[in-house]
């Protein structure tokens, strides 16, 4: 027998054993048609799993997605698979403040109540550094600032629903923060340090964890609860060709299989989010503001120690407010700079003699420095 086949068999045997330690399922038969839930990143792996479990419990699901075609296809499959029709696709591009505002406005106007917001969308470990049109590093924007803004836009609606149904919940999806994760508020954009996709991802998720801790403290006067769901790594099926790949060393092949054994299907990874969003036991302040995972239920805060880090959490919060407050006016300034540049370019086209474009170029740089140095 070839070694990879033997390892595949071992992995299949190990999976059910690991399954014994899973967090218990929230009963499938429960009818929760009284709830409306928004799931961002609904077209992603854990997003689809989350929508699937919500639909099984007859929750009204709002799939928030940037790709409507993909969303509609997934919706159709979910309806066919679960028989639950109260699933809607709504456009939300977290890279665009206008889209976040339009989405929130529509939700507030259209939906009689919103009981659950699951901030699940994310970008992960981008190879090259990307800066959004607001001048902020992309992980930090999409994974933290955008859900921060969206949550605030929907907070009154969520609290309003809580006063009717006595229970509304925000669930933020992160991994488990490690002690070595860190946020450099003076260098969010990796201008002073070498860019690393891993570091940028961790920085954004740690910020989301701090946000959750403080948001929970803000909600003590109402029946709103805030949870963090620390997902386990999602399993990627290993194709036989990958195992056969002769360019891989034996150690790399073992790593591939190790990853296969200790990772979990996306659908199962979504399970703690469902517990956080729906479990009746978790309708209690004692459970709110904490981090949960698939194994062992409550995980503890790991690298984001709620008590120890509260001062820093407040700094992250204030920094976010500053960044979001100033972002729109910076966009206006950027638009003007762009218009200036276009005029210079047109003038250059019209006259072959060199035109001095230093004003426009230095202007743009000035704005970027202003935005990125915050
Ligand atoms: N996968 C893991 O092993 C793992 C481990 C720990 C934590 N997590 C966390 O679990 C969550 C879900 O992970 P996943 O593996 O399901 O991720 P995924 O498959 O990559 O899905 C990410 C989702 O976010 C959406 N998204 C990205 N940028 C967006 C934007 N600008 N506007 C709107 N939507 C945007 C994507 O939309 P498109 O479909 O249009 O691309 C996609 O639906 C993430 O928060 C992740 O950090 C995952």
Summarize this structure briefly.
The chain is α/β, with parallel strands linked by helices and 374 residues long.
What small ligands are held by the chains? NADP nicotinamide-adenine-dinucleotide phosphate
* Rg (C-alpha, Å): 23 Å
Largest sheet: 7 strands, parallel
Amount of beta strand: 5-15%
Q: Can you describe this structure?
A:
With 374 residues, the protein is an alpha/beta fold. It folds into 2 domains: 3-310, 3-Layer(aba) Sandwich (Rossmann fold), CATH 3.40.50.720; 324-372. It is 52% helix and 10% strand. It has helices spanning 3-19, 45-56, 68-82, 97-110, 138-165, 197-218, 240-244, 250-261, 266-269, 271-278, 310-350, 358-372, and strands at 36-40, 60-65, 87-91, 116-119, 168-174, 224-230, 290-292. The chain has a 7-stranded parallel β-sheet, with helices on both faces. Strand 5 (168-174), helix 6 (197-218) and strand 6 (224-230) form a beta-alpha-beta unit. Helix 4 packs parallel to helix 5. The longest helix is centred in the last third of the chain and has 41 residues, at 310-350. The protein starts with a helix and ends with a helix. Residues 16-22 and 353-374 have low confidence and may be disordered. The structure holds NADP nicotinamide-adenine-dinucleotide phosphate (NAP). NADP nicotinamide-adenine-dinucleotide phosphate (NAP) binds at residues 41, 43-47, 66-67, 70, 92-95, 120-124, 142, 173, 175, 231, 233-234, 266. NADP nicotinamide-adenine-dinucleotide phosphate is lined by residues 41, 43-47, 66-67, 70, 92-95, 120-124, 142, 173, 175, 231, 233-234, 266.
